[in-house]
Design brief:
By secondary structure, the protein is of the alpha/beta class. The protein folds into two domains: about 10-120, Tetrapyrrole methylase, N-terminal domain (Cobalt-precorrin-4 Transmethylase, domain 1); about 125-235, 2-Layer Sandwich (Methyltransferase, Cobalt-precorrin-4 Transmethylase, Domain 2). The chain has 13 helices and ten strands. It has helices at about 5, 30-35, 50-55, 70-80, 100-110, 125-130, 150-160, 170-185, 210-220, 235-240, 245-255, 260-270, 275-284, and strands spanning about 15, 40-45, 60-65, 85-90, 115-120, 140-145, 165-170, 190-195, 205-210, 225-230. Strand 8 and strand 9 form a beta hairpin. It is elongated. The chain binds S-adenosylmethionine. S-adenosylmethionine binds near residues 93, 94 and 225.
Protein backbone atom coordinates (compact mmCIF):
# COMPACT_ATOMS: atom_id res chain seq x y z
CA UNK A 1 0.00 0.00 0.00
CA UNK A 2 1.48 3.40 -0.92
CA UNK A 3 0.91 6.65 1.00
CA UNK A 4 -1.87 7.82 -1.31
CA UNK A 5 -3.85 4.64 -0.72
CA UNK A 6 -3.13 4.80 3.01
CA UNK A 7 -4.53 8.34 3.09
CA UNK A 8 -7.88 7.38 1.54
CA UNK A 9 -10.64 7.37 4.12
CA UNK A 10 -11.53 3.88 5.24
CA UNK A 11 -15.09 2.95 6.18
CA UNK A 12 -15.88 1.85 9.74
CA UNK A 13 -12.73 3.49 11.11
CA UNK A 14 -12.10 5.85 14.01
CA UNK A 15 -9.34 8.39 13.30
CA UNK A 16 -7.61 9.92 16.34
CA UNK A 17 -6.72 13.31 14.92
CA UNK A 18 -4.22 15.50 16.80
CA UNK A 19 -5.06 19.22 16.68
CA UNK A 20 -2.95 22.27 17.65
CA UNK A 21 -2.26 23.04 21.35
CA UNK A 22 -2.42 26.78 20.67
CA UNK A 23 -0.99 27.82 17.35
CA UNK A 24 -3.57 27.02 14.65
CA UNK A 25 -0.82 26.39 12.09
CA UNK A 26 0.42 23.35 14.04
CA UNK A 27 -1.66 20.79 12.18
CA UNK A 28 -0.59 18.26 9.57
CA UNK A 29 -1.75 18.15 5.92
CA UNK A 30 -3.03 14.68 6.62
CA UNK A 31 -5.07 15.86 9.61
CA UNK A 32 -6.77 18.54 7.49
CA UNK A 33 -7.46 15.98 4.75
CA UNK A 34 -8.91 13.41 7.13
CA UNK A 35 -11.08 16.01 8.91
CA UNK A 36 -12.40 17.15 5.51
CA UNK A 37 -13.25 13.63 4.34
CA UNK A 38 -14.62 11.63 7.31
CA UNK A 39 -18.41 11.25 7.62
CA UNK A 40 -18.52 13.02 10.99
CA UNK A 41 -16.32 14.50 13.70
CA UNK A 42 -16.64 13.74 17.43
CA UNK A 43 -15.28 16.69 19.42
CA UNK A 44 -14.57 17.19 23.12
CA UNK A 45 -15.45 20.88 22.87
CA UNK A 46 -18.03 21.76 20.25
CA UNK A 47 -17.44 25.51 20.81
CA UNK A 48 -13.68 25.36 20.29
CA UNK A 49 -13.40 22.88 17.39
CA UNK A 50 -15.57 24.92 14.93
CA UNK A 51 -12.93 27.70 15.11
CA UNK A 52 -10.31 25.26 13.85
CA UNK A 53 -12.63 23.81 11.19
CA UNK A 54 -13.62 27.27 9.94
CA UNK A 55 -9.96 28.30 9.78
CA UNK A 56 -9.29 25.39 7.39
CA UNK A 57 -12.61 25.71 5.51
CA UNK A 58 -13.88 22.34 6.75
CA UNK A 59 -17.64 21.76 7.00
CA UNK A 60 -18.57 18.47 8.65
CA UNK A 61 -21.32 17.22 10.94
CA UNK A 62 -20.06 17.59 14.52
CA UNK A 63 -21.17 15.70 17.63
CA UNK A 64 -19.91 16.12 21.17
CA UNK A 65 -17.95 13.47 23.03
CA UNK A 66 -16.67 14.50 26.46
CA UNK A 67 -16.22 13.26 30.01
CA UNK A 68 -19.85 13.71 31.05
CA UNK A 69 -21.57 12.20 28.01
CA UNK A 70 -19.03 9.54 27.01
CA UNK A 71 -21.11 6.65 28.46
CA UNK A 72 -24.08 7.31 26.19
CA UNK A 73 -22.22 8.87 23.29
CA UNK A 74 -19.53 6.16 23.02
CA UNK A 75 -21.94 3.33 22.06
CA UNK A 76 -23.74 5.67 19.60
CA UNK A 77 -20.45 6.39 17.84
CA UNK A 78 -19.64 2.66 17.77
CA UNK A 79 -23.02 1.89 16.13
CA UNK A 80 -22.38 4.46 13.39
CA UNK A 81 -18.86 3.10 12.82
CA UNK A 82 -20.16 -0.47 12.61
CA UNK A 83 -22.76 0.71 10.09
CA UNK A 84 -19.91 1.82 7.78
CA UNK A 85 -19.34 5.50 8.67
CA UNK A 86 -15.90 6.95 9.39
CA UNK A 87 -15.29 9.28 12.34
CA UNK A 88 -12.50 11.65 13.41
CA UNK A 89 -12.08 12.13 17.15
CA UNK A 90 -10.62 15.48 18.17
CA UNK A 91 -10.19 16.80 21.68
CA UNK A 92 -9.96 20.31 23.02
CA UNK A 93 -6.30 20.44 22.04
CA UNK A 94 -3.44 18.13 21.19
CA UNK A 95 -3.44 14.37 20.92
CA UNK A 96 -6.70 12.55 21.70
CA UNK A 97 -6.47 10.00 24.54
CA UNK A 98 -3.80 11.93 26.47
CA UNK A 99 -5.48 13.22 29.66
CA UNK A 100 -8.89 13.33 27.96
CA UNK A 101 -11.74 10.83 27.40
CA UNK A 102 -10.32 9.63 24.05
CA UNK A 103 -8.80 6.53 25.68
CA UNK A 104 -12.28 5.25 26.60
CA UNK A 105 -13.48 5.46 23.01
CA UNK A 106 -10.39 3.60 21.78
CA UNK A 107 -11.08 0.87 24.33
CA UNK A 108 -14.72 0.66 23.23
CA UNK A 109 -13.61 0.31 19.59
CA UNK A 110 -11.20 -2.45 20.59
CA UNK A 111 -13.93 -4.32 22.45
CA UNK A 112 -16.27 -3.98 19.44
CA UNK A 113 -13.70 -4.94 16.80
CA UNK A 114 -13.77 -1.45 15.26
CA UNK A 115 -10.57 -0.25 13.58
CA UNK A 116 -8.74 2.72 15.14
CA UNK A 117 -5.89 4.59 13.51
CA UNK A 118 -3.92 7.70 14.45
CA UNK A 119 -3.14 10.97 12.74
CA UNK A 120 -0.36 12.12 15.08
CA UNK A 121 0.63 15.68 15.91
CA UNK A 122 1.00 18.13 18.78
CA UNK A 123 1.00 16.99 22.40
CA UNK A 124 1.64 19.44 25.25
CA UNK A 125 3.59 16.87 27.32
CA UNK A 126 6.10 16.07 24.58
CA UNK A 127 6.42 19.71 23.51
CA UNK A 128 7.24 20.67 27.12
CA UNK A 129 9.64 17.76 27.61
CA UNK A 130 11.65 18.63 24.52
CA UNK A 131 11.95 22.26 25.70
CA UNK A 132 12.77 21.36 29.31
CA UNK A 133 16.54 20.93 29.02
CA UNK A 134 16.11 17.96 31.40
CA UNK A 135 16.87 14.31 30.70
CA UNK A 136 14.59 13.21 27.83
CA UNK A 137 15.88 9.63 27.53
CA UNK A 138 13.55 8.26 30.20
CA UNK A 139 10.48 10.10 31.42
CA UNK A 140 7.28 9.52 33.33
CA UNK A 141 4.01 11.21 32.33
CA UNK A 142 1.77 11.79 35.33
CA UNK A 143 -0.94 13.93 33.67
CA UNK A 144 -3.19 15.72 36.17
CA UNK A 145 -2.62 14.98 39.85
CA UNK A 146 -5.65 13.95 41.88
CA UNK A 147 -7.81 16.74 43.30
CA UNK A 148 -8.33 14.61 46.41
CA UNK A 149 -5.77 15.78 49.00
CA UNK A 150 -4.67 12.46 50.55
CA UNK A 151 -4.45 10.77 47.13
CA UNK A 152 -2.37 13.68 45.81
CA UNK A 153 -0.01 13.52 48.83
CA UNK A 154 0.41 9.76 48.42
CA UNK A 155 1.14 10.08 44.70
CA UNK A 156 3.65 12.87 45.26
CA UNK A 157 5.41 10.78 47.89
CA UNK A 158 5.73 7.91 45.38
CA UNK A 159 6.81 10.29 42.62
CA UNK A 160 9.51 11.81 44.83
CA UNK A 161 11.47 8.56 44.32
CA UNK A 162 10.93 8.48 40.56
CA UNK A 163 14.30 8.68 38.83
CA UNK A 164 12.90 9.51 35.41
CA UNK A 165 11.99 13.08 34.41
CA UNK A 166 8.41 13.73 35.57
CA UNK A 167 5.79 15.56 33.46
CA UNK A 168 2.66 17.00 35.10
CA UNK A 169 -0.33 18.90 33.67
CA UNK A 170 -1.82 21.54 35.94
CA UNK A 171 -4.69 24.01 35.82
CA UNK A 172 -3.76 27.65 36.60
CA UNK A 173 -5.93 27.92 39.72
CA UNK A 174 -4.15 24.93 41.28
CA UNK A 175 -0.60 25.72 40.11
CA UNK A 176 0.62 27.59 43.22
CA UNK A 177 -0.50 24.93 45.68
CA UNK A 178 0.85 22.14 43.46
CA UNK A 179 4.28 23.80 43.23
CA UNK A 180 4.31 24.15 47.00
CA UNK A 181 3.29 20.47 47.45
CA UNK A 182 5.95 19.42 44.95
CA UNK A 183 8.61 21.36 46.85
CA UNK A 184 7.55 19.73 50.13
CA UNK A 185 7.55 16.24 48.64
CA UNK A 186 10.59 16.42 46.34
CA UNK A 187 12.82 18.93 48.10
CA UNK A 188 14.60 21.43 45.88
CA UNK A 189 15.03 20.23 42.29
CA UNK A 190 15.22 21.65 38.81
CA UNK A 191 11.86 22.33 37.20
CA UNK A 192 10.95 23.75 33.81
CA UNK A 193 7.62 25.57 33.92
CA UNK A 194 6.12 25.67 30.40
CA UNK A 195 3.29 28.18 29.98
CA UNK A 196 1.04 28.82 26.96
CA UNK A 197 3.11 26.63 24.61
CA UNK A 198 3.05 27.67 20.93
CA UNK A 199 0.90 30.73 21.80
CA UNK A 200 1.79 34.44 21.71
CA UNK A 201 2.53 34.49 25.46
CA UNK A 202 4.63 31.32 25.48
CA UNK A 203 6.99 31.32 28.48
CA UNK A 204 9.55 28.69 29.43
CA UNK A 205 11.09 29.15 32.91
CA UNK A 206 14.15 27.08 33.75
CA UNK A 207 14.07 27.28 37.53
CA UNK A 208 13.92 25.27 40.76
CA UNK A 209 10.99 24.11 42.87
CA UNK A 210 11.83 26.58 45.67
CA UNK A 211 12.09 29.52 43.24
CA UNK A 212 9.00 28.55 41.26
CA UNK A 213 6.83 28.17 44.37
CA UNK A 214 8.05 31.52 45.74
CA UNK A 215 7.44 33.19 42.33
CA UNK A 216 3.84 32.02 42.06
CA UNK A 217 3.09 32.89 45.71
CA UNK A 218 3.45 36.49 44.46
CA UNK A 219 1.77 36.27 41.04
CA UNK A 220 -1.52 34.81 39.87
CA UNK A 221 -0.90 32.03 37.31
CA UNK A 222 -2.68 32.56 34.00
CA UNK A 223 -2.99 30.27 31.00
CA UNK A 224 -2.09 26.63 30.49
CA UNK A 225 0.86 24.96 32.18
CA UNK A 226 3.01 21.86 31.89
CA UNK A 227 5.54 21.17 34.65
CA UNK A 228 8.66 19.15 33.84
CA UNK A 229 10.64 18.10 36.91
CA UNK A 230 14.08 16.58 37.25
CA UNK A 231 13.98 12.93 38.38
CA UNK A 232 15.34 11.77 41.75
CA UNK A 233 19.09 11.42 41.88
CA UNK A 234 20.55 7.92 42.25
CA UNK A 235 21.87 8.75 45.74
CA UNK A 236 18.42 10.07 46.84
CA UNK A 237 16.90 6.83 45.72
CA UNK A 238 19.31 4.56 47.58
CA UNK A 239 19.64 6.33 50.89
CA UNK A 240 16.61 8.04 52.52
CA UNK A 241 14.12 7.87 49.68
CA UNK A 242 11.92 5.25 51.32
CA UNK A 243 12.34 6.59 54.88
CA UNK A 244 9.71 8.61 56.72
CA UNK A 245 10.92 11.85 58.37
CA UNK A 246 11.09 10.08 61.75
CA UNK A 247 13.11 7.16 60.33
CA UNK A 248 15.44 9.57 58.59
CA UNK A 249 16.12 11.47 61.84
CA UNK A 250 16.51 8.20 63.78
CA UNK A 251 19.12 7.12 61.22
CA UNK A 252 21.30 10.11 62.15
CA UNK A 253 20.62 9.74 65.87
CA UNK A 254 21.90 6.16 65.68
CA UNK A 255 25.10 7.56 64.22
CA UNK A 256 25.57 9.62 67.39
CA UNK A 257 24.04 12.97 66.39
CA UNK A 258 21.87 14.87 68.89
CA UNK A 259 18.14 15.11 68.08
CA UNK A 260 18.62 18.73 66.97
CA UNK A 261 21.57 17.92 64.69
CA UNK A 262 19.79 14.84 63.30
CA UNK A 263 16.80 17.01 62.33
CA UNK A 264 19.15 19.57 60.77
CA UNK A 265 20.94 16.85 58.75
CA UNK A 266 17.69 15.21 57.60
CA UNK A 267 16.25 18.59 56.55
CA UNK A 268 19.43 19.32 54.56
CA UNK A 269 19.25 15.92 52.79
CA UNK A 270 15.63 16.52 51.87
CA UNK A 271 16.24 20.08 50.75
CA UNK A 272 13.44 21.34 53.00
CA UNK A 273 13.41 23.78 55.94
CA UNK A 274 13.52 22.26 59.44
CA UNK A 275 9.99 23.58 60.01
CA UNK A 276 8.70 21.22 57.28
CA UNK A 277 10.20 18.25 59.14
CA UNK A 278 8.76 19.43 62.48
CA UNK A 279 5.34 19.72 60.83
CA UNK A 280 5.65 16.18 59.49
CA UNK A 281 6.76 14.83 62.90
CA UNK A 282 3.80 16.54 64.56
CA UNK A 283 1.41 14.88 62.11
CA UNK A 284 2.41 11.64 63.78
N1 LIG B 1 -4.61 15.92 24.86
C1 LIG B 1 -3.81 17.08 25.23
C2 LIG B 1 -2.35 16.87 24.81
O1 LIG B 1 -2.10 16.14 23.86
O2 LIG B 1 -1.47 17.46 25.42
C3 LIG B 1 -3.93 17.41 26.70
C4 LIG B 1 -5.33 17.68 27.17
S1 LIG B 1 -5.45 18.11 28.84
C5 LIG B 1 -7.19 18.07 29.03
C6 LIG B 1 -5.14 19.83 28.87
C7 LIG B 1 -3.84 20.18 29.63
O3 LIG B 1 -2.74 20.08 28.72
C8 LIG B 1 -3.80 21.62 30.12
O4 LIG B 1 -4.42 21.75 31.40
C9 LIG B 1 -2.32 21.89 30.22
O5 LIG B 1 -1.76 21.33 31.39
C10 LIG B 1 -1.81 21.11 28.99
N2 LIG B 1 -1.75 22.00 27.82
C11 LIG B 1 -2.51 21.94 26.71
N3 LIG B 1 -2.15 22.92 25.83
C12 LIG B 1 -1.14 23.60 26.41
C13 LIG B 1 -0.34 24.71 26.04
N4 LIG B 1 -0.51 25.32 24.87
N5 LIG B 1 0.61 25.14 26.88
C14 LIG B 1 0.81 24.55 28.08
N6 LIG B 1 0.09 23.48 28.49
C15 LIG B 1 -0.88 23.02 27.68
Amino acid sequence: MNNEEKNKIEKSTLYLVATPIGNLADISYRAVKILSEVDFIAAEDTRNTPKLLTHYGIKKPLISYYEHNKRERGPEIIERLKAGESCALVTDAGTPAISDPGADLVDLCRKNGVKVTSVPGACAAITALTLSGLDTRRFCFEGFLSTEKSEKTERLDELSREKRTVIIYEAPHKLTSTLCDLYKAFGDRKITVCRELTKINEEISYTTLSEASAYYEERRPRGEYVLVIEGAKEEDAVFFATMSAEEHIAFYEKQGLSRMDAIKAAAKDRGVPKSTLYAELNKG
